[in-house]
Amino acid sequence: MDQNCIFCRIAAGTMPAKELYRDDEVVVFNDINPQAPFHALVIPVKHLATLNEAEAVDQAVLGKLMLVAKQVANAAGYPDYKVQMNCGKGAGQIVFHIHLHVLAGRMSHKEVG
Asked: Is residue 52 pLDDT above 90, yes or no?
């Protein structure tokens, strides 16, 4: 855990968040600056700043992030949704702890393609 990382603090339960899902490996919570009617963040409990830090040992949890993204979108009533991950500052990553954005409920045709 990185004490300076806001997502590590959320994963540890020391920073409040509106959680949608939690287990020993993954936490899901609502984005505080939603870009769609449904906008959740799916994070691993383990701190990895970017996808570039991931190694073979992280393969299972990376796959689990995707399956949990599906689960929370479907549970919220969204069978159609968008999953996005930014890797690095140049790609728009702001918080340096791997996370998936799960967005649904208002997508233009441009975003669907």
From this structure: yes
